[in-house]
Amino acid sequence: MAYRINEKECLKCGLCVTECPEGAIVVDDKVTEPDGLVLFTTRIDQDKCTEFGTCQSHEWWCPAKAIEKV
Length: 70
Hints:
Elements: E1 3-5, H1 15-19, E2 25-32, E3 38-44, H2 54-57, E4 67-69
Antiparallel strand pairs: 1-4, 2-3
């Protein structure tokens, strides 16, 4: 069982990056909008992910619920 971030659902808020206990969610790109909003393009590093499912057990981590099993 592996996990991925559904890019269509992702809000690009970056909460998952700071909350993953394994440090498996990494930032590929960071963009600051003209109004100051910072958007993060993220992915799950499968080499670091323990596939324990912690990222899905805490719904507040991802307000969009964009982390899914594949």
